[in-house]
Design goal:
Blueprint (H helix, E strand, L loop, with lengths): L1 H16 L7 H4 L23 H11 L5 H13 L2 H13 L4 H23 L5 H5 L8 H12 L11 H16 L4 H27 L18 H13 L5 H24 L4 H17 L1
Helix pairs in contact: 1-5, 4-12, 5-12, 5-13, 6-8, 6-9, 6-10, 9-12, 10-12, 10-13
């Protein structure tokens, strides 16, 4: 217990020092869309008949994260995770940056997970709500194959196999796709938006920590076809909130998003490596980069 707390404090302190937002934000809360303030309205334009609800409506119009399923997912995922879960996620992520072998194992697990997800999205029997959020710009399989080529060389597909936690993750994706396909929305929300929001940061951390060739082995974290992350996520949230779902289905999606968080922790906990070693390598290489 003491070591867990130590790792948590040390890791989070390190990220604060590096001016990096907590990696745990990728699943502990909705990927952050900078909150757009309500449009500036001249004071004289607001007479005494202006209602508070009208002012709120202006603010919500520009920030869909503040209502509907987007808000439910934000609140529902943030409030449900314990310090131990958050610590496990952050520590596991840094384990994945400790050696090339650990990072390769992480990319391999993601390859199997995204293969299952994107196969499910391609199924014509999957409900239109899932297809409405399935943007080509978010798809990751092509990028993952580039990274696998980099770390394994050619003909790697016949040599890899999923880890036990990865098998559980894949099985869950296939189960919900067959029985409750609307729950795939939780997987889209948790993984794709998290990847998009944190991609540049995580890819840069991997490059510096593992001393990778610039741009190599981190294609997974690059979204070259999305020029504005903020605008894209805002549009995605608007489509999310417009889905025709019952309140019960929405609550199930929030529960599934929390389940996805635990499935990701399972993959990270399997990785071999030292989070503190990764922190040290990242700090050292970042310092070297800044010093030129």
């Amino acid at each position: 217990m003491a070591r867990t707390v130590y790792y948590s404090i040390t890791l989070l302190s390190f990220m604060s020092m590096m001016q990096i937002e907590s990696v745990a934000s990728f699943t502990t809360r909705a990927p952050h869309v900078p909150i757009s303030r309500s449009r500036s309205v001249p004071f004289m334009a607001l007479d005494t008949s202006t209602k508070e609800s009208d002012v709120k409506e202006i603010a919500v119009e520009e920030n869909p994260r503040m209502l509907g399923l987007a808000l439910m997912l934000d609140d529902g995922t943030r409030k449900s995770h314990s310090m131990a879960q958050n610590s496990a996620f952050v520590s596991g992520f840094f384990k994945g940056l400790s050696t090339r072998e650990a990072y390769r194992a992480l990319i391999t697990s993601l390859y199997f997970v995204y293969s299952a997800m994107e196969d499910a999205f391609d199924d014509p029997n999957v409900i239109s709500d899932v297809h409405a959020l399935d943007d080509a710009e978010l798809r990751r399989m092509s990028a993952l194959k580039q990274d696998m080529d980099y770390f394994y060389g050619v003909e790697w597909e016949s040599t890899i196999s999923p880890s036990p936690s990865t098998k559980s993750y894949v099985a869950r994706v296939r189960h919900v796709a067959e029985h409750k396909p609307y729950l795939l929305i939780a997987h889209q929300y948790t993984r794709y938006l998290g990847d998009l929001f944190g991609g540049q940061m995580m890819g840069g951390m991997a490059t510096r920590s593992l001393d990778l060739e610039q741009g190599k082995g981190v294609a997974f974290y690059n979204f070259d076809d999305i020029p504005s992350t903020k605008n894209f996520i805002t549009d995605w949230y608007q489509r999310l909130n417009a889905l025709d779902l019952t309140e019960e289905q929405k609550m199930e999606i929030v529960d599934e998003a929390n389940n996805v968080f635990d499935l990701n922790i399972g993959i990270l906990e399997e990785l071999e490596g030292s989070p503190l070693k990764a922190m040290w390598s990242l700090a050292l290489n970042t310092l070297k980069m800044k010093l030129g």
